[in-house]
From TrEMBL:
InterPro entries: Enolpyruvate_Tfrase_dom, Enolpyruvate_Tfrase_sf, EPSP_synthase, EPSP_synthase_CS, RNA3'P_cycl/enolpyr_Trfase_a/b
Name of this chain's protein: 3-phosphoshikimate 1-carboxyvinyltransferase
Subunit structure, as described in the record: Monomer.
Subcellular location: Cytoplasm
Pfam families (UniProt xref): EPSP_synthase
Keyword Amino-acid biosynthesis: yes
Record flagged with keyword Amino-acid biosynthesis: yes
A GO term for molecular function: 3-phosphoshikimate 1-carboxyvinyltransferase activity
Catalyzed reactions: 3-phosphoshikimate + phosphoenolpyruvate = 5-O-(1-carboxyvinyl)-3-phosphoshikimate + phosphate
EC class name: transferase
Length: 432
């Protein structure tokens, strides 16, 4: 069994961190470029397993994907209707984003596609995408009543029909899959969400000359004739990766960090709002726009935090950051109450259960799990412990920061950070 021991960071973390490319935007940059017909030069691409799964998928569908370096590539497609039938089964790896968005793109295509993935992805629910696409006329078949991998998309004689879909969940993946299918459909396609989810798809579609209309929590797309690909896409740094350093800077005494080139799209910055509400010392500098996406450098310094309360309304803006926010809450004065996070039970693992079980090893009795959230009692003593990552990158990185801020931790199966942040442990070591 592979383990990694993280020691306490006694004197604080100091320095600058170049944040790796945003995972969501890296996925979309390759997918959308492969639907154009001219070369697109992509820089600051996230060279991690999930995004490489997307690059491999687009290559299997006939696009040219040429890596110049780990973080730089050129993608050339054959036009919006130029995807080719893959020669074999497509492997989405561990990536739910790859699978769900690709189902939207491939549901209207005139050829058969079959998807597989790793053991974790085989357990994740895909019915939330398959059901609306089927309502548009797609023919998609999967295990367990069209819910689970492997999944096959069968071509149909008629074009998909546009529709208005009232989504029961605020999910960028669900919304994106339907909008991408809607590009090929007859008539307009509208997705209405209970709350607005991340809008990376809409912003990048705009960069490819495709206009979407927003009305409250509803987004509408019209049938699309062609993509006008930009020559270049610079991917901003991923705020979900910056989140670990944001929290580390807040809770480890003596810390002063500058995080370079962080995407600060307002649909993603819930963690900044929550940490500031808890009393964090966070400043945005050098604010700018890149490829339709807001970016900035973020300075974070140690500060005394206090507990807070948040729920469903902000959840789409910080769902991936709940594990690391829970770490911040352990070092805050008073209780932090998190509700409306039931979505975390169907991620790479049941993250609510993972946080409860593993964080309590380091801070006994500090975390109470609820059906859709957590109650975290801040200020309890932190001890060294051996904890399990569940092969979940966000749990592993959160445990590492908890150990660095507490009394150390030994993490089982630590290498799962390669899913989104291969340089994470080296970066932590360099900031001590």
């Amino acid at each position: 069994m592979d383990t990694k021991t993280i020691a306490k960071a006694a004197a604080g973390l100091k320095g600058e961190v170049q944040i790796p490319g945003d995972k969501s935007i890296s996925h979309r940059s390759v997918m959308f470029s492969a639907l154009g017909s001219t070369p697109v030069h992509i820089t600051n691409f996230l060279h991690a397993q999930d995004c490489l799964s997307t690059a491999a998928c687009m290559k299997a569908l006939g696009a040219s994907v040429e890596f110049k370096s780990d973080t730089e590539l050129v993608v050339t497609g054959n036009g919006l209707r130029g995807l080719k039938e893959p020669q074999t089964i497509i492997d989405a790896g561990n990536s739910g984003t790859t699978l769900r968005l690709m189902m939207g793109i491939l549901a209207p295509q005139p050829f058969l596609t079959t998807f597989t993935g790793d053991a974790s992805l085989h357990k994740r629910p895909m019915g939330r995408v398959i059901a609306p696409l089927s309502q548009m006329g797609a023919k998609i078949y999967g295990r367990q009543d069209n819910q689970k991998l492997p999944i096959t998309i069968v071509p149909q004689a008629q074009k998909l029909k546009g529709m208005t879909y009232n989504s029961p969940v605020a999910s960028a993946q669900v919304k994106s899959a339907i909008l991408l299918a809607g590009m090929y459909a007859e008539g307009d396609t509208t997705v209405v969400e209970p709350f607005t989810s991340r809008d990376h798809t809409e912003r990048m579609l705009e960069a490819f000359g495709v206009h979407t209309e927003k009305n409250g929590t509803a987004v509408t797309i019209h049938p699309v004739k062609e993509f006008n690909a930009p020559q270049e896409i610079e991917v901003p740094g991923d705020i979900s990766s910056a989140a670990y350093w944001l929290v580390a800077g807040c809770i480890i005494p003596g810390s002063d960090l500058l995080l370079r080139n962080v995407g600060v799209n307002v649909t993603r910055t819930g963690i900044l709002d929550v940490l500031k509400d808890m009393g964090a010392d966070i400043t945005l500098v050098n604010e700018r726009t890149s490829g339709g996406e807001a970016a900035a450098d973020i300075r974070v310094r140690y500060s005394k935090l206090h507990g807070t309360k948040f729920g469903a309304e902000i959840m789409p803006r910080l769902i991936d950051e709940i594990p690391i926010i829970a770490v911040a809450a352990l070092f805050a004065e008073g209780d932090t109450v998190i509700t409306g996070a039931g979505e975390l039970r169907v991620k790479e693992t049941d993250r609510l259960q993972a946080i409860t079980d593993q964080f309590n090893k380091l801070a006994p009795g500090a975390v109470d799990g609820t059906e859709d959230g957590l109650v975290i009692h801040g200020g309890k003593p932190i001890q060294h412990a051996q904890a399990f990552s569940y092969d979940d990158h966000r749990i592993a990185m959160s445990l590492a920061i908890l150990g660095a801020a507490g009394d150390g931790v030994t993490i089982e199966n630590p290498e799962c950070v390669n899913i989104s942040y291969p340089a994470f442990y080296q970066t932590l070591d360099s900031l001590r």
